[in-house]
Amino acid sequence: MHPRDQTIFALSSGRPPSAIAIVRVSGPMAETVVSRLAGRMPVPRMATRALLHGQDQRPIDDAVVLWFPGPASATGEGVAEFHVHGGRAVLAALFNALAAFENVRAAEPGEFTRRAFENGKLDLTEAEGLDDLIHADTERQRRQALRQLKGLLGDRARDWRERIIAASALIEAGIDFSDEGDVPAELIAPALAKVESLRDEIRNVLAAQGQSERLRDGLVVAIAGPPNVGKSTLINQLARRDVAIVSPHAGTTRDVIEVQLDLDGYPVTVIDTAGIRETDDPVEQEGVRRARLRADEADLVLWLADGAGEVGAHDGAAPVWLVRNKIDLDAMRPNEPGEGSVRPEFGISAARGDGLPELIKALVSFAHDYFGTSEGGLIGRARQRKLLQETVESLSRSLDVIELGEELAAEELRRAAMSLGRLLGRVDVEDILDVIFREFCVGK
Ligand SMILES: Nc1nc2c(ncn2[C@@H]2O[C@H](COP(=O)(O)OP(=O)(O)OP(=O)(O)O)[C@@H](O)[C@H]2O)c(=O)[nH]1
Ligand SMILES: [K+]
Ligand SMILES: [Mg+2]
Q1: 247 among the known binding-site residues?
Q2: What's the pTM?
Q3: Which tens digits make up the pLDDT trace of 281-306?
Q4: Does this complex have an ipTM over 0.90?
Q5: Residue 177 contacts by C-beta under 8 Å, 6 or more apart in sequence?
Q6: What are the beta bridge partners of residue 25?
Q7: Which pairing describes strands 48-53 and 59-68: parallel, antiparallel, or unpaired?
Q8: Beta-carbon neighbour count of residue 415 at 10 Å?
Q9: Residue ranges in 27-151 assigned as alpha helix (H)
Q10: Which of 194, 249, 303, 344 has the greatest CB tally within 10 Å of its CB?
Q11: What angle do CA 14, 19, 22 make, to 5 degrees?
């Protein structure tokens, strides 16, 4: 039997142990599974209490059972939900009982959503939005994901696709008309006008968007600098807890330490690294190597220095802010901009907290620019942006090549429609589906 026709089950709630755990079952066997385990069929969509029994008639748990007959269910198939007590042994007993049925197996990550997608319950942008919503840590990520889940991008893309197909139908009708020679201009002109306005519309969405698909991955800020300048003290201050060891001993931090922060709704990862210096200690050398690597990959580097230190050499393309620490030790006032310095310069005391509000304010404003200011951003992922860009390019090309022949223009329009089809998950997507759904949680 094809894996797709098998019945799947998974824990859909959080990690056990928990007060309640929800196990979902989807597929052709779901109905049989419910009636055997619960001893009867619950009324559809009504919470029903039942003592669950395995096939050996031993009781499993006192549960609440829900039955959603397909196709009006989350996946489009028959779906059962078992709300059981969230103990590990309870779940193990239930999983054993489920797996004992023929053609019933544990679900792969994302398999429920994939079935929903394959049964037309949601388009690919909505499926991606669902995944993002589950993984959203901050308020802005949540709002962005919800827009996707509500299908705002999908709705626009469907409309664009239909209009492209209509324009290309006009051109193709023109081609059919002209047995020999030219296609009548009165057919081509309105089609071209449509294509042009469509292209501008999609361009506007791309432009208005800023970079809000970056919300998924977050902003990476690396704290780097020489040993003992107070890098770990600063990350502890930003995290408001002791994530890194602070000591007067130079070379304390060797591993890369990460904390996730919610800065004004923006997801920011701050990393503390080993102090960068020449050293004979192989462990510290490795720490320094990793520190350089992470600083090179970061989106922003806070180069910490004390006294009169300057920014050290590094290879990354990211902006570097010089942050002078330990201003409590000298007479320098907080946030005195360095003379002739192009990069922002901050004076702080990580130990006492002086200058930190200003530094955090600057970070929020950096995040604001980095993620784009648009609240109405429709694009949630780089994949979506890329396909929209391809659509715009094909539309532009169709306008360019129309002089050379209507067939060429029609071909470009087909390409544009294809890109939007991919965006929605309607064309040749098997390969990307595997990639996308694999990232999902099990039970989703
Ligand atoms: N006076 C003063 N001391 C500080 C300040 N920030 C950190 N220190 C001290 O400087 C020393 C080094 O601090 P760390 O945070 O461990 O420095 P680091 O840059 O992480 O050091 P490595 O991990 O070894 O590279 C500790 O003794 C801290 O207490 C500050 O703002 N003022
Ligand atoms: K130290
Ligand atoms: Mg340190």
Answers
A1: yes
A2: 0.66
A3: 999 899 889 888 888 889 999 999 98
A4: yes
A5: 183, 184, 187
A6: 9, 80
A7: antiparallel
A8: 17
A9: 30-38, 88-99, 111-118, 124-135, 139-149
A10: 303
A11: 50
